[in-house]
Design a protein that fits this description.
Distance between the termini: 55 Å
GO molecular function: carbohydrate derivative binding; glucose-6-phosphate isomerase activity; monosaccharide binding
EC number: 5.3.1.9
Strand content: 5-15%
Bound molecules: 6-O-phosphono-beta-D-fructofuranose
Number of strands: 13
Structural class: alpha/beta
Subcellular location: Cytoplasm
Protein name: Glucose-6-phosphate isomerase
Oligomer: single chain
Radius of gyration: 25 Å
Family: Belongs to the GPI family.
Largest sheet: 6 strands, mixed
């Protein structure tokens, strides 16, 4: 038993620490950031933290010392530290699946000992990393050849969810570190258009498919992998024997990999204690390792590990993931915020928020507690956002002047990537000026008096007024390097952990994705053959009939 249930304690919203926060929220009322800053000139300095290469400014939050103290007390009362330590020890904290949660072991140094059922898992982690490295060296040097003797120039990762989003996001993020003479594509959607567009201009003789699936039963991935195999064999005019040179698998399921026809020598293993959405620094990162090379991959793992150690050891007052998790609880549970925007001011982080959507929403989108009892408090937020400055010309209007409370993270880097030519690198200051300006405008707004003083006609004053008081965290680093990316992801992973611990939910299962999968399997024959699906509701039955009519069936 973990968290709130450990000592048979009361429900979260009946804890004295929860009630104290609710009362404190009442007392603070609609206090404005303008006032909080006016009362504490050193606020920016006091409400900032440095972890590794990440500088976090949380001064633009609707909190006081008292708020932060009460939030930390809530963390203590809900057993966040105990659950964290149990996770790092390899205990089976994923209680609905009876599994340990050990993505932290994937980036532990070789000397570390992390036991699951009395067995140290770290040597196996490093053995797989070495196997990945040997494979990458062979492909990158041209020693690994395709069926016709040509070297590999194209790498297509086929996977979905955690078997796609991590490597695809990190590949984009670290483009500047990638082998530019190789082509990388990521195929996830069962819509045949995805695979079609990914391979239509590739030479099968030079193409390697990486089939990434923890379970190796995911219908989208197996369907796409089968089509990719057909494309390859047809293109090469070869038989099954060509598969060994063009297909490798990343999975926990050797039996299914062999069943598909991939030699298990070409399989890179991971384990059931790695959740899909926490898996991209396992074998699932093979495409990324090919792209950035083994050394950069290890640098990235070191970045993850740095933040793991920070989360494990830093006192609550200085613990960045704990702080971010608590701020999310503050807004979600005490300010009625429904969503959380992640706004990276880096084009390279174009898939960062999509990655975080799975991490956060698949983890904390739950409405029963660890014991299956309905919760009476809000859990995970809707996570959304796209890179600045594009969003500024689309949806920032709503954040600035809409009716909703939307806490946001603004992420930026002091330096542009090194390879930009000087003219383009010079644009970086403008990019970052926008980040800082948005944080400022969101927090402090523009009062009616200020607007009127500019001579704005009276009837337009309300339209041009900015309420402000929109909370943001600003995360700054010198440069987007492999290590910094690892640090950022680990920061969010542990933030999500903290929130799940407080809400007393299992952040490591995802039963909510199952029903749709089962129903799709039942509906598909009805679309193809017109067979009747027993018990199909009237609306879906009518849609199925319409679909068949429109398809001319
Ligand atoms: O459907 C959800 C999910 O199970 C995710 O949690 C996972 O990342 C994804 O599907 C892919 O699963 P697999 O790696 O087993 O193909």
């Amino acid at each position: 038993m973990y968290g709130l249930n450990a000592a048979g304690r009361t429900a979260l919203d009946r804890l004295p620490e929860w009630k104290a926060l609710a009362e404190h929220r009442e007392e603070l009322g609609e206090v404005h950031l303008r006032e909080l800053f006016a009362n504490a000139p050193d606020r920016a300095a006091r409400y900032s933290l440095t972890v590794g290469d990440l500088h976090l400014d949380y001064s633009k939050h609707l909190v006081t010392d008292e708020t932060l103290r009460l939030l930390r007390e809530l963390a203590a009362a809900t057993g966040v530290a105990e659950l964290r330590d149990a996770m790092f020890r390899g205990e089976k904290i994923n209680n609905t699946e009876g599994r340990a949660v050990l993505h932290t072991a994937l980036r532990a140094p070789e000397s570390a000992v992390v036991e699951v059922d009395g067995h140290n898992v770290v040597p196996a982690v490093h053995a797989v990393l070495r196997k990945m490295q040997v494979f990458c060296d062979r492909v990158l040097s041209g020693d690994w050849k395709g069926h016709t003797g040509k070297r590999i120039r194209n790498v297509v990762n086929i996977g979905i969810g955690g078997s796609d989003l991590g490597p695809a996001m990190a590949y984009e993020a670290l483009r500047a570190f990638t082998a530019r003479d190789l082509t990388f594509r990521f195929v996830s959607n069962v819509d045949g258009a995805d695979l079609h567009e990914a391979v239509r201009d590739l030479d099968p003789a030079e193409t390697l498919f990486i089939i990434a699936s923890k379970t190796f039963t995911t219908i989208e991935t197996i369907t796409n992998a089968t089509s990719a195999r057909n494309w390859l064999l047809t293109g090469l005019g070869a038989g099954q024997e060509a598969v060994a040179k063009h297909f490798v698998a990343l999975s926990t399921n050797a039996e299914k990999v062999a069943e598909f026809g991939i030699d298990t020598d070409n399989m890179f293993e991971f384990w059931d204690w790695v959740g899909g959405r926490y898996s991209y620094d396992s074998a699932i990162g093979l495409s990324l390792m090919l792209a950035i090379g083994p050394d950069c991959f290890r640098e990235m793992l070191a970045g993850f590990h740095l933040v793991d150690e920070h989360f494990r050891t830093a006192p609550f007052e200085e613990n960045a993931p704990l702080l971010l998790g608590l701020l999310g609880v503050w807004y979600g549970n005490f300010h009625d915020a429904q969503s959380h925007a992640v706004l990276p001011y880096s084009h390279y982080l174009s898939k960062f928020t999509a990655y975080l959507q799975q991490l956060d929403m698949e983890s904390n989108g739950k409405s029963v507690d660890r014991d299956g009892r309905p919760v009476s408090w809000q859990t995970g937020p809707v996570v959304w956002g796209t890179p600045g400055t594009n969003g500024q010309h689309a949806y920032y209007q709503l954040i600035h002047q809409g009716t909703k409370t939307i806490p946001a993270d603004l992420i930026g880097f002091a330096r542009p990537v090194a390879e930009l030519e000087p003219g383009l690198a010079a644009q970086h200051d403008l990019l970052m000026a926008n980040l800082f300006a948005q944080g400022q405008a969101l927090a402090f707004g523009k009062t009616a008096e200020e607007v009127a003083a500019e001579g704005v006609p009276e009837e337009l004053v309300p339209h041009k007024t900015f309420r402000g008081n929109h909370p943001t965290t600003t995360i700054l680093a010198t440069e987007l390097t492999p290590s910094v990316l690892g640090q950022l992801i680990a920061l969010y992973e542990h933030k999500v952990f903290v929130q799940g611990a407080i809400w007393n939910i299992d952040s490591f299962d995802q039963w909510g994705v199952e029903l749709g999968k089962v129903l799709a399997k039942r509906v598909e024959p009805a679309l193809v053959e017109g067979t009747e699906v027993p018990g199909l509701d009237a609306s879906t039955a009518a849609l199925v009939a319409k679909y068949r009519e429109l398809r001319g069936r």
